[in-house]
Write a structure and sequence with these properties.
Elements: H1 9-25, H2 36-52, E1 55-60, E2 66-69, E3 117-118, E4 121-122, E5 167-172, H3 173-178, H4 218-221, H5 241-282
Antiparallel strand pairs: 1-2, 1-5, 3-4
């Protein structure tokens, strides 16, 4: 294992500054770092636009659950990542769906399209070939067979719905708020997609509720505890303090009953062993003199 050693706080600060730069600029510098003047000008131009016109991208089931919230490193059907697609707009597009074309040279991807993985492998189409064996534009037909009219996978998501029933959804902040979905805090980072917090990293069915809205409000979590339970545990259909007390009382009684049972069995075993030793001591010896 390699370890990085920094000589002084200035070196460690330089690393933090570079990570901040990379999160903000993303792929926009073309692989060549901006000068300090270019960086400041970039932030003045892009950050207000990015915060105001952020687009949220998710892979949504037919039930309305966001099964996958797309982030900067989430791969597209074209195998390039979300951060390599167009994600910043001076003005939000009026047409729907919103297209996010790939910016990688010679890539024919016209819009970001999420495709799940089966472990670390691409999922298969009904033609038995992998997703990356299909074209990235048009009907996504297979390049290895002539019978495939377009990519269509019956791979089952964790929500129990097949992959072909899901849609890649690109929407604005207002559109998500109208549906009661989270938008998080305004951040200056590039290609954040649908990420709004740590819960966004989990699949939809693993979040706190079916809608994928996420954690309870800050107000609820910071409500002083009344001794019944933690505010976080009271977030959804919470039991009353009396119910919690009764439950703890039953648990204590059950533990006491269990200990009494095992103590009784232990004493019975000791009694039997003592009786067996007494009988053996009275048994005449069978050995010859």
């Amino acid at each position: 294992m390699e370890r990085l050693h920094f000589q002084g706080a200035a070196a460690a600060g330089a690393i933090d500054d570079y990570l901040e730069y990379r999160r903000i600029v993303g792929e926009d510098d073309g692989g060549k770092l901006f000068s300090p003047e270019e960086y400041e000008q970039y932030k003045k131009t892009v950050l207000p636009m990015r915060i105001q016109n952020r687009l949220f991208v998710s892979w949504r089931s037919p039930t309305g659950m966001d099964c996958k919230l797309v982030g900067p490193e989430t791969p597209c059907f074209c195998t390039h990542r979300y951060k390599q697609h167009k994600t910043d707009f001076k003005e939000l597009p009026k047409d729907r769906p919103i297209h996010l074309p790939c910016k990688v040279s010679k890539c024919q991807c016209k819009s970001y399209h999420y495709v799940p993985l089966n472990g670390s492998q691409p999922i298969r189409c009904r033609c038995k070939h992998y997703a990356d064996d299909h074209t990235v534009a048009g009907s996504y037909h297979c390049t290895k067979c002539s019978n495939c009219a377009g990519f269509h996978s019956s791979f089952t998501c964790g929500c129990s719905q097949p992959a072909y029933a899901h849609d890649t959804v690109v929407e604005t902040k207002e559109e998500r708020l109208d549906q009661g979905k989270p938008v998080g805090h305004s951040v200056p980072y590039a290609a954040m997609g649908g990420l709004t917090g740590f819960s966004s990293l989990a699949e939809g069915y693993m979040r706190l509720d079916d809608s994928g809205v996420g954690a309870p409000s800050r107000h609820l979590l910071e409500t002083p505890d009344d001794g019944g339970s933690h505010p976080f545990l009271r977030a959804y259909d919470p039991p009353s303090a009396t119910a919690v007390t009764e439950q703890m009382s039953r648990l204590k009684t059950s533990e006491e009953d269990d200990m009494a049972f095992f103590e009784k069995r232990y004493q019975e075993r000791l009694k039997k062993e003592k009786e067996l030793r007494r009988l053996n001591s009275k048994r005449p010896s069978t050995q010859r003199p």
